Amino acid sequence: MTAESFVASPAGQHRAPEGALSVPAPGGLPGGHGPAAGRGPRRRRPDARLPLWLADGGAVLVGALALPAAHRHPLVLAVLALGVFALNRRASLYDVSLMPGALDDVPAVCGRIAVGWAVAAALSPLRSLPPSVLLTVVAAHCAAACAGRAVVLGLRRRALRRRPCPALVVGPVVTARQVAAALLRRPECGVRPVGLVADGPDALEDLADETGLPVFTTALEARRAVGRDGVGAVLVVGAATRVERASVLRGLAASGCALWELDAERGPYTVGGRAGHLAGFPRRPLRREDGRKPGAGLKRLLDVVLSGALLVLTGPVLLGCALALRVMDGPGVVFRQERIGRDGRPFTMLKLRTHRPASEHEAATRWSVANQQDMSRFCHFLRRTSLDELLQLWNVFRGDMSLVGPRPERPYFVAQFSQAHPGYPERHRMRTGITGLAQINGLRGDTSIEDRARYDNAYIDDWSLWQDVCVLLRTAAQFVRPTGS
Known about the structure:
- The protein has 15 helices and 11 strands.
- By secondary structure, it is an alpha/beta fold.
């Protein structure tokens, strides 16, 4: 919760953040919502998740039929079905891109069915059922769900063996070639490489290999391959954050391809998450670009509730600080400044005035005023304790900012940092915040902008409501030992 300061990164360190590349969410691999294989215009495919939804819906009916007739309450069963669907969706059990084996998802499917029936039995007339009857109903429901899913996934795997999803492999040419060869040896994976996207012209040397796949070195060549071969998946090996590679991947994502990261060199730390593997290579989807993740509405609700409550609680403190500033330094206690927020949109940020710039130009282009000698002791106190930032709660309440997010910056410096640090513009995918992951990790005051951008993008990539709570608690703890800005 402090003012920003800038220390130029050492030479050679102007690089993109090292977190996962942010791209639009994958549409489905293999054979999910990606483009159809083959030449010519792409036709819209039916939603490949629908058979799984139908299998789970049929399983609910089987469970309902196993109930005694007197306990078949349509409303209870409808709520139960919706609850099971929601739990399965949250666990990615409708993600057709993962293509698990028939037995892989049995624990997850049965566990969520059991939870759904347990809640229904506790909160509805079903609580009068004998435990033995309820266990029989749950067993019937689980058996029907697992059997239906096994049939659906089996048919899907058979279809993919007949018509695998065309894919491009992106990364260092030697590693990409090895991955492509492994996939060509395993057609049952449902993915057929049709080309390699190498990192530069030097990768064109010594390309004779057993795959015989073409090698592309520019984004234009790769996008032409997408249209020509109906590419529906892009498999990334190596660091996805490499600048020249990131631009190629964004173009491929814009073409409708599903983007996946493969761990081609398994070590003690591998890619994680419920992503499964492809021909033995651990894989995970590359994340969506805009930061609009499920739960964003809850984040906004948390912002409104907490900022409103804090405005009421800190109102007397704000009023006292404003009166003290008015008496000691004259009129004009509120400082207004244009900052850049989500999606690059400007807004007016509010603070208690602790310094009077010589001109609007100085306010917009001078980096830090934290060590100005002409500041009064009271203004130094406001900045050291971050009390001057409390007015930003109003920015949060009206939607300009969030409680937690990347700190907003002035347009002049946004333009500079965006040129110097390739990952800096990505931090505007989410609402800016009063505090953030960078600030609680000591990146306040005179610290590296490159480091801040890396932490900000890591926060957006891995955002969760619980992470916001943790950042707020750690920020509150820092009030006990303020270090100044």
